[in-house]
Design goal:
mainly alpha
């Protein structure tokens, strides 16, 4: 079960990783890392899981 804060962090991670309008760079990587930390997961694990669900992205 996720807390409200964790659920919002999970949504934010999905948006950060899949929004093509967001520019890549150190700022976004830091945000992804901080948001993943709220969930207790590594950013690479989030990216792999989400990309497995959306292989064409």
């Amino acid at each position: 079960m996720l807390t409200r804060t964790q659920a919002l962090a999970a949504i934010e991670l999905a948006e950060l990783l899949f929004d093509p309008a967001r520019p890549a760079g150190a700022d976004i990587h830091a945000t992804i890392a901080a948001t993943a930390e709220q969930l207790g997961v590594r950013p690479i694990d989030v990216a792999v899981t989400l990309s497995a669900r959306h292989p064409n992205r």
